């Protein structure tokens, strides 16, 4: 085959690959979409059944205050703790008013001030009063709001490990090696419930959760004068740190809003894992 033919075939193959693009991984049926629940989600849904009236609550910034950043992957802690809190309040049945992202409502209010916004835009140009009016008191106010931050990320507060090797035979032979390691880190959260009107801090909570990681490795090396081989394998597991943050937020919301539940909910809605812990709520605040 001539040099030009080789070059032509190579270019043709490259063009085919470029047009077809990379093959996508097929969806795996054993990994479906599921609800993103924590151990405290059932307690929040249980509290939703409480018959006591619930005030409107807003959520402010729940920031990452750990200062821990990886130069390759960015922040080590989720930046969405405020969204976790909104979801937790909704799961517990609280009416939530939006204060975290008001960009859309501000744009629409601006359009309404200019009489450009209408709920029946198809009538534009046919009626002089076809615009949305701004009424006094139309925006729902909050009675309380949640604010705080993820304040701690302590890495490798405890670690342990074991390495072992076993040789069989003298000189050339088999050698078995294994290791077992574990490590612990923890995440801390500080959250507070604030009265929107008086700005009084009604209650605070400080919680921490440990995250445990484990790894195990096993290897086999067989050698001789004529042949040798090596087989190795391992497994590791670790609870996602971001899932730990969600669990912390849900537990904090459950505790800070306990004052708004009735007595039956306060007695029955804690997870079974915490049934032996004392969970006393103060007297309900005013409406």
Structural overview:
With 287 residues, this protein is of the alpha/beta class. It has a domain at 35-99 and 142-274: Rossmann fold (3-Layer(aba) Sandwich), CATH 3.40.50. 24% of the residues lie in helices and 33% in strands. It is built from 6 helices and 8 strands. It has helices spanning 3-20, 41-47, 81-91, 103-113, 241-256, 263-268; strands at residues 57-64, 69-70, 74-75, 96-97, 144-168, 174-195, 201-223, 228-238. It has a 6-stranded mixed β-sheet. Strands 2-3 form a two-stranded antiparallel sheet. Helix 3 crosses helix 5. The longest helix has 18 residues, at 3-20. The model is unreliable at 14-22 and 276-287 (pLDDT under 50).
